[in-house]
């Protein structure tokens, strides 16, 4: 099995069409991400970041802007998938933006681990994700979930099927 590498970061710059298409897919077409209110704030081949702002819908039965662990887990999983999408997009820069966006229909979570370090209490949250390895069939990622004060609240590690 040969390892497939991502082009050097300095040589990859996403086209506005690709960025817009990936934002639309991630923020609007994936309904659960829309419910969570996930908004992409950075999209590069090496790192993706997003934000969740607390709403009455997310607070649920909890008070004091406490976010449910299931929302944290879902957010981290979504971010791991987004990081893989960006890495796949960078790997296939020889294709048109639309061709690269169509590749994501086969992406799926194989494994997800979440460590809850502190209660999720904040008015908004920052999520980060990086791809550790992008293979020909499986990608490995790490994710982080921060409160508005910059404190690390949760971490995650995920494996995603890419073929």
UniProtKB/TrEMBL annotation:
<keyword id="KW-0378">Hydrolase</keyword>
<dbReference type="InterPro" id="IPR003736">
    <property type="entry name" value="PAAI_dom"/>
</dbReference>
<feature type="domain" description="Thioesterase">
    <location>
        <begin position="65"/>
        <end position="152"/>
    </location>
</feature>
<protein>
    <recommendedName>
        <fullName>Medium/long-chain acyl-CoA thioesterase YigI</fullName>
        <ecNumber>3.1.2.20</ecNumber>
    </recommendedName>
</protein>
<dbReference type="Pfam" id="PF03061">
    <property type="entry name" value="4HBT"/>
</dbReference>
<comment type="similarity">
    <text>Belongs to the YigI thioesterase family.</text>
</comment>
<dbReference type="InterPro" id="IPR006683">
    <property type="entry name" value="Thioestr_dom"/>
</dbReference>
<dbReference type="GO" id="GO:0047617">
    <property type="term" value="F:fatty acyl-CoA hydrolase activity"/>
</dbReference>
<dbReference type="InterPro" id="IPR029069">
    <property type="entry name" value="HotDog_dom_sf"/>
</dbReference>
């Amino acid at each position: 099995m040969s390892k497939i590498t991502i082009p050097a970061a300095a040589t990859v710059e996403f086209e506005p069409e690709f960025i817009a298409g990936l934002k639309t897919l991630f923020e609007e077409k994936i309904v659960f991400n829309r419910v969570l209110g996930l908004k992409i704030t950075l999209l590069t081949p090496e790192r993706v970041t997003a934000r969740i702002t607390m709403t009455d819908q997310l607070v649920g039965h909890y008070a004091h802007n406490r976010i449910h662990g299931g929302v944290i887990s879902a957010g981290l999983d979504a971010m791991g998938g987004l990081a893989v999408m960006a890495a796949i997009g960078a790997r296939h820069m020889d294709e048109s933006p639309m061709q690269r966006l169509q590749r994501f229909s086969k992406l799926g979570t194989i494994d997800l681990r979440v460590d809850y370090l502190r209660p999720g209490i904040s008015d908004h949250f920052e999520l980060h994700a990086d791809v550790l390895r992008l293979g020909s069939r499986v990608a490995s990622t790490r994710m982080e979930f921060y409160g508005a004060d910059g404190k690390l609240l949760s971490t995650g590690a995920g494996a995603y099927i890419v073929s």
